Amino acid sequence: MTRTYIFSGVAVITGAGGTGIGAAVAKGFALSGCDRIAITDLNPSSLNNTKEAIHAASPDVRLFVQAGDISDESFVDSFIGAVVSEFGRLDYAVNCAGVLGDALRSTETSTEVFDRINNINYRGSWLCSRAELKQMIKQDPLPSHGPAREPQRGAIVNIASQLGIVGQPGAPAYCASKAAIIAMTRSDAIDYARDGIRVNCVCPGVIETPMTTSSDEVRERLRPAVEIAPMKRMGKPEEVADAVLFLCSTFASFIQGHALVVDGGYIIN
Ligand SMILES: NC(=O)c1ccc[n+]([C@@H]2O[C@H](COP(=O)([O-])OP(=O)(O)OC[C@H]3O[C@@H](n4cnc5c(N)ncnc54)[C@H](O)[C@@H]3O)[C@@H](O)[C@H]2O)c1
């Protein structure tokens, strides 16, 4: 029996442009032997950077690359349809696209700002996972890595946040959008367990990505959270990707509806 991941299916990652968590997940799949990977992001040039990085490190990987807005229902449905046309199926889906927003209390938050954050983070994740589930539910399962494990028809990992579990000053819309992703994950996990589909989420702490490092204001805003966490550092996107790959793999065959916190201990303090 092998002791390494077998990613013989097709992976899809949203928010995969640039140097953030989605890009680390896409590269992680390629380095772990997944040879059919679809990536999307709002930003075509950062998406192209991820494509080039994967091709340079893993030249045998077949990539499907399409830029678009995951808060747009028609884009999401056509993107997932195009992935299935290209690769025939969809096995590991990682819904990572998201936005943080400015530091605003509720009384300072406009309805437009609230809607933008929730349309991308919560509604966008739901649109993606719904399209992914529609494909997964009708495909044959793939064998697992060992005889004691059930075959797997699909695995979805939604990227929530530690801020879906605990609060933070000036982030009501963001925190609520991430709590909604955790609740959605649990509900889908219940509904699709009988189909051999696992649905989980990862709740990152403060991770060193463009979202957290692109401005001094955001770095300053997040400094207390880094200091509260027992490990007292930002996590790396690759450390989140490791957790995501585990949850997608059949090594997580009995893990369902879980919110796996990857935060250097922040929420235990
Ligand atoms: N970095 C952190 O500290 C942290 C902590 C907890 C959760 N998260 C979550 O992790 C996920 C990835 O964030 P990151 O830190 O890698 O940030 P990032 O900004 O590097 O990546 C987010 C990506 O999503 C893309 N995106 C934004 N809106 C989109 C849309 N409408 N359609 C398609 N793509 C869109 C962006 O272009 C970007 O490439 C997000 O959901 C974020 O909320 C991040």
From TrEMBL:
Q: Record's superkingdom?
A: Eukaryota
Extract the Gene3D superfamilies matched here: NAD(P)-binding Rossmann-like Domain
Would the keyword DNA repair turn up in this protein's UniProt record?
no
**InterPro entries given for it?**
NAD(P)-bd_dom_sf, SDR_fam
Q: Which UniProt keywords apply?
A: NADP, Oxidoreductase
Q: A Pfam family name for this chain?
A: adh_short_C2
- What protein name applies here? Oxidoreductase
